[in-house]
Amino acid sequence: MSEGPLDRLAAQARQKHVVVVGGGVAGLVAAWECAKVGVRVTVLEQDPRVGGVVRSAEIDGLVLDVGAESYATRGGTVRSLVDELGLSDAVTTPRPAGAWVAGLPGGAAAPLPRGGVLGIPDNPWAPEVRRIIGWRGAWRAYLDRLRPPLTIGHQQSLGALVRSRMGARVLDRLVAPVTSGVYSARPDDIDVDLAAPGLNAALTRTGSLSGAVAELRGGRTAAPGSAVEGLRGGMSTLVDALAERVRELGGEIRTGARVTGLQATGEAWDVHVADGEAAGEQPDAAAGGASPMRADAVIVAVPERAARELLSPVAPLLDREAAPAPVVEVVTLVVDSAALDAAPRGSGVLTVPGTGPAKALTHSTAKWEWVAAAAGGDRHVLRVSFGAQGEEPATAALDDDAAASLALAEAARVLGVELGAASLRGAQRERYAQAQPAATIGRAATTTAARGAVRAVAGLGATGAWLSGTGLAQVVPDARAEAERVRSALLWRETASGA
Within a 10 A sphere around the Cβ of 20, how many other Cβ atoms? Predict the structure, then answer.
């Protein structure tokens, strides 16, 4: 019996080797997608562990998320991945406590209103809104109903739109805490059409910004921050499952392997790795270093600065310079405090920018049932975040003990409780260089240009938060799509040429 096209395709896949640079979630997803069709895969990660911003640590005997703790449910893409990995039984949802905003006049705090979009209220007269912006703010926001809508063009900047329609109090006390906490960005830098698709058009139809918000919400009044899911045991279980699937399909994952350069050699690639032992290659004495790893295709899945440095020498149309990325430090605390048992300020608190060093706090034992069960008694888990766009974290120059002390003081301030030094049971500090938010003005054009430059080079791919936008709901489908593009180009090209 003669060999058919599918047999040739399967045989061709077994002969191909794809190297994935970066072992975060994007890199692991891309590697798994390639391994599924029989392609030999090697993942090279310079850190001693895989997972990227999804990471866990043991604090006071508890294994806790100290990086990403959840994923957005929009699109269903991450849940599909979770189900495919056999983790469906571990899925959990937040308790319905909702989030608060702190840093209001006089040090006050209040629950974030339900029924808003990016903090923009659908009814400025609602008691929960008026409690935050005051009577003066409510009257100013009401002028939105009296002003004519934009009929020619639309407002691109979220900050400019809210400021002109509803005034400074809505912007500063409702919208800015949300954009700072979610995007690590200022409202003026957020593109309305990307962050809230359809809002400008709805404003034109309804005649007001509050009316546009009501239309987009469609009567839904879920608590702010509730459209997420997590995994019992922590999000690192997702990373562990991905790595296991890659290995089950014959893929290799090598940590401590820093890729220093890529070189096109005909229809193949040489991947240069700093540590010959970590790369699994023998040192090449004549070349003065480790011998390169040969690959038929390469997918780069590392943060933007490192990605551009690797890709620009082999993708001539790609700019080497990366935009400054927000740097965030998260200090996770385990404390003893009976005062926190009643979750006095919900599942977390966003702060009005400029009112204190911390930009946000998550009360994990109030938010997640599994964390509360693991902690037991009066132990509570608090995650305090520092740093935003253009703002170095207040913890940056501190040692770990001083950073933990500042985080504890900030937790007490934003939660409105006493938390003395003796209450601290343990702390873990993590630093992240976040990708530029996809919703910032001009970012879409930047990433489109970068994708075009990479895709102009055969056998080369790139994925990750700097291209897709931050959050697993954007990272996962982007990684899958890029892996499909690269593997299809590699295999169908070879199959066609051999047909």
Answer: 35
Q: Tens digit of pLDDT for each residue in 38-60?
A: 999 999 999 999 999 999 999 99
Distance CA 315, CA 337 (A): 55
Q: How are the residues of the chain apportioned to helix, strand and coil, as percentages rounded to the nearest 5?
A: 40, 25, 35
pLDDT of residue 433: 85
Q: Which of 240, 194, 220 is nearest to 436 (CA)?
A: 194
Half-sphere CA count of 256, side-chain side, radius 13 A: 6
Q: Please name the amino acid found at residue 316.
A: P
Q: Look at residue 287 and tell me whether its pLDDT is greater than 60.
A: no
pLDDT one-digit tens code per residue, 438-475: 889 999 999 999 999 999 999 999 999 999 999 999 99
CA distance 58 to 53: 16
Element (H, E) at 73: none
Q: Which residues pair with 72 in a beta bridge?
A: 228
Query: Quick one: DSSP state of residue 419?
Result: -
CB burial readout 177-191, b (16+ within 10 A) else e: bbbbbbbbbbbbbbb
CA distance 423 to 334: 8
Q: How confident is the model at residue 492 (pLDDT cuts 50, 70, 90)?
A: confident
Torsion sign over Cα 74, 77, 81, 86: positive
CB under 8 Å to 281, separation ≥6 — which residues?
273, 290, 291, 292, 293
- Structure-block tokens of residue 171: 């912007």
Query: Taking the CA atoms of the chain, what radius of gyration do you get in angstroms?
Result: 24
- Residue in the structure block whose two tokens are 């987009």: 216
- 329 has which bridge partners? 386, 431
| Residue tagged 């979750």 (tokens) | 343
Distance CA 309, CA 46 (A): 15
pLDDT band at 115 (very low <50, low <70, confident <90, very high): confident
Give the E-state strand segments of 25-65 in sequence order: 40-45, 56-59, 62-65
Distance (Å, whole) CA 336 – CA 246? 41
First to last CA, the chain: 16
CA distance 399 to 410: 16
Per-chain mean pLDDT for the chain: 90
Helix (H) or strand (E) holding 35: helix 25-35
For 478, other C-beta atoms within 10 Å of its C-beta total 22
Is beta strand 379-386 parallel, antiparallel or unpaired with respect to 358-363?
antiparallel
- 271 touches 293 (CB < 8 A): yes
Q: How far is CA 120 from the centre of its chain?
A: 22
